[in-house]
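Suppose a colleague, Dr. K., hands you the sequence of a protein chain of 429 amino acids and asks what its three-dimensional shape might be. Before reaching for any lab equipment, you can write down a predicted structure in token form. Begin with the sequence itself:
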Amino acid sequence: MTPRKIKKTSLLGNLTVQILIAMFFGAILGIYIHNNYDVPFAKEFSDKIKILATIFIRLIQMIISPLVFTTLVVGIAKLGDIKTVGRIGGKALGWFFSASFISLLIGMFWVNILKPGVGLNLLNVDLTSVAEVIGITHSFSTQSFIEHIIPKSIFEAMSNNEILQIVIFSIFFGLSAASVGSFAKPVIDALEKTSHIILKMVNYVMKLAPLGVFGAIAGVFAIKELNDLVITYVKFFSSFLIGIGSLWIFLFIVGFIFLGKRMKTLLKHIMGPLIIAFGTTSSEAVFPKLTEELERFGINSKIVSFMLPLGYSFNLDGSMMYMTFASIFIAQAYGVHMDLGMQMTMLLVLMLTSKGIAGVPRASLVVVAATCGMFKIPIEGIALILPIDHFCDMFRSATNVMGNALATSVVGKWEGVRGNKISPSKLKM
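The predicted structure, expressed as tokens, is then:
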């Protein structure tokens, strides 16, 4: 196998600076438009400037399906046998479910300690904005959940960017290719070369990241009334930040336990992807770049190709923390009493219903609404959090990226294999 060559340049550092500058000027422009023009103009401006973000995210989405398929199939086929795949898959799922459970617990802990929903004024809540999410929630059933996981056509799954469905097909395809041995080698070699070409496409697309972030930030600030947001939601948002901050501290501690001083090196590598995810509120937008950076960090490409697609379906730490936090917040706001047993039941329900939800529009809100319905909490309560959900989503997306990068790095270390692209000296602090 020809090693995948990854040329290390100053692109990441420059890109990170460019994105930070784009976030700053996007916010300035959005606030200026909001304060100096009427609502119809601001809304029209927001819709048009967000086209920049739409272009960037759609270009990334164009790449994700073929990248997940090619890298995962190649990774599984080169792992060699079902036993190896099962061993790594077992470690991955063990990590994912443990991390999800702890994330849910952190959200449940802080919402009970800080009680941001208690005494909230429910007057003047705009229920019209919640119609879209409730519409999706009504179709959220066991049947739709299974259909969302199991593909009936790989082409349909790819066209809709159904990551989990692509993962399921790729696992079967990769295991089948490994079982037929050398007969499948030409196919695997072709897919590997295809993945190299797609990663080259990533470099071109990522140059548009600052424009995408600029458009996303400017569009949001142009239509959001900051004073109302600060006054009305300061308790909710500050409580959420305490919760998400606690989760980051936990992830850092776990990272230093398993990776030692190399945790700092990992953070340097993934800083760019973290900022892009934060600015665009899309962890999908950084999937290709995160793949590249983890290989630069020294994780074997086989492990990265196997772990990341699974992580994007099963390991959404930031979203998990938010789901318990938001669900119990709504219960508090409506005066619905939930004892510890009921809250733990909700936690377990969220553990199951959240898996495979990646790719659903406003996935976290959909799961929160569905969970509220199960526990007799008014579903329209999500209207309380919709005005500030975008800002929460910025932190959720970055946390999801952090969690997946950490999980991939730790499992890579457990497997004891490093990439063959970087010399050991470059892996040291």
